[in-house]
Amino acid sequence: MTSNPKQHLNPLSMIYFLFRHLLDWVILIALVFGPAMRFLVRHHISPLLGFGGIILLIIAIVFVRYLCFTFEIADDMLTINSGIFIKKHTHIPYGRIQTIQRSQWFFLKPFHLEKLQIETAGHDDHSPEAVLPIVPERVREAIEQRRVSHHANSDSDLESTIKSTQANSKPIPTYLINPHDLNVFALTSLGIFPLMGVLLAIYGKIQDVIPQRIINSITSEIVQQSILMIAIIALLIIIISIIGTFLTIVQRYYKFTLTNESGQLKTYQGLFQRNSVTIPVNRIQAIRIKQNIIRQWCKLSTIQALSASSAGDKEKSNDLMIIPVIKTAKAFSSLAPFISWAPADFSQLTTLPKRDFWYFIRNALLFGLVPVAICLYFFKAWGLLSLPIFIIAFFQGWYSASNTGWKISGDQLIMQNGHWFTRSQFVIPRKNVQSFGIHQSIWMTRTNLAHVRVNVRHGNSNEEVELRYLPLSAAQEIFNWLKIRK
Amino acid sequence: MTESNQLPPQIKTVWRLSALFTFLILAIVGIGCYFLATTNNWQWLSYPSLVLIGIAIIYFIIELILVPYRYAFWRYTLTDDAVELRSGYIFRHLVSIPIARVQDVTLEAGPVLQSQKLQKVRVTTASTSHTIDGLEPEVGERLRKQIMQMAVEVNDHDV
């Protein structure tokens, strides 16, 4: 394909444009409604005609916007032209593309249409550099093909090109989520707690809305059965929360698939809306293996990739899922075909000696002191009910300490820490560490302890990975190892 | 050049001057508010403005006390392939920035720094940003050159 004419989006995009700015239009109409009515009445024009005119105008604007929005798939870059009055031209060289995200609603699948979002590492904005609302699937194919060939050309050593062609002849490594694991994963989400809060709030609202008369007539009956009622309502809320989170998670990761095609990782997921993210393996900055405490007991892990793109899970800020759920024992062996530098197996990490646990527990208890003090001040004796916070804080401290671990393995640093009953293990290649430091207070010099902080690019900002209260010698070992230049 | 360097001594003047300016701004706002409050008999404003003046004074005193402490323990080291920043005694920080990871270096000087013939150096990586409060222009320039040279050698940042 040598000719690369300007292309328009699919005409259906007009509906997208219309709905994306629907709120603006509604506000506009609401604002002009009064004056417009007066104007129309004065000039004896039927209001129907007048508002029909406004709607026609809106449609015309949307249509012009559609006409002005074009894109060009040139040989070395993608160009997007948009804007009616302020013309905007975005040029994205293929080599600079971080991720390509596509989402396809089930009703667009028969028409082979989808939404494309293209991101680079530039950190100007939170929104992707390019959004193509509704385009035929072949557009993505064309872009991806050019991107792959660009990578092959730019690699100076021929070896990787050969490798990628070999990879084409070999079966493509593929991972498909295990439905049973997904069910357990969805059931063990800690996300039910926020949802429970929302439901409780809704229940409170409903109570306000019910007329007082009805409540009064029922109250006498309820009082006798109040405990039973409260129990039933609480149980209902919990059940609805569990079902709600369960369905959300299952539909989001439904048939999650991960493939590796010549150095490009590609994920597919979702039931109603199939989402897909493509990212070159060599753009991944670090890997994070995450488990909350319940999933630790169920021996399930989540594997995420940190990259300089904010693609991925919208709700969970930039975490790009590589494998949403996998048996912990198989985590690294399943990852190996996709990320070549990942360790082959879980390494035995160096952990903290038991006597250092105290510092974590002390800090957690100090944090717990704040809410307890507030409760005691405001609720006096009733505030004593907040004392269990200390128990939670104690276990939180213990949890953080016992999950702290580190290891230098080949060219990578493995760091593990625990926060809020969630354990995260980071695998960071040395070349992706942006900066690092040792931090120590004067009291820690007596006990020979230090914190180590390592900074990695994540999304549009920084991910600081911290190991707290390491023995100074270990901290210095990590520091000196990070200083070595390849 | 691998030994640790203290910041130039003029930086103490810079810190004191910036503390003074911040104090003056806060104090002027506070006094202005207090003046308004007393002339218009606005009870709601008189206490906050006094608090603001108090904060300004406390801030100024603490900053002045901290200047020698900060100066005494601030060190920077330029090695062939890294910038190391060391600071603090009660809370000790040692941060290392590999030059190969540096995306850009910014030299800047406001009026206060200019009066002391210093430049503020900001080193930015793909994810973090580190500041050296003030360097003599020659040192800043040398740092900039060194980093640019390394950046040419390492042409692919892999971000």
From TrEMBL, chain A:
One Pfam family matching this protein: bPH_2
InterPro entries: UCP026631, YdbS-like_PH
Keyword Cell cycle belongs to the record: no
Plastid found in the keyword field: no
Keywords noted in UniProt: Membrane, Transmembrane, Transmembrane helix
Transmembrane segments: 12-33, 45-68, 184-206, 226-250, 357-379
Superkingdom as given in the UniProt entry: Bacteria
Domain YdbS-like PH: 66-138, 254-323, 403-482
Full protein name: Membrane protein
Organism, as annotated: Lentilactobacillus diolivorans
From TrEMBL, chain B:
Keywords (A to Z) from UniProt: Membrane, Transmembrane, Transmembrane helix
Record keyword Chaperone present: no
Presence of the UniProt keyword Metal-binding in the record: no
Transmembrane feature ranges: 14-37, 49-69
Coiled-coil portions: none
YdbS-like PH domain span: 71-147
Name of the molecule in the record: YdbS-like PH domain-containing protein
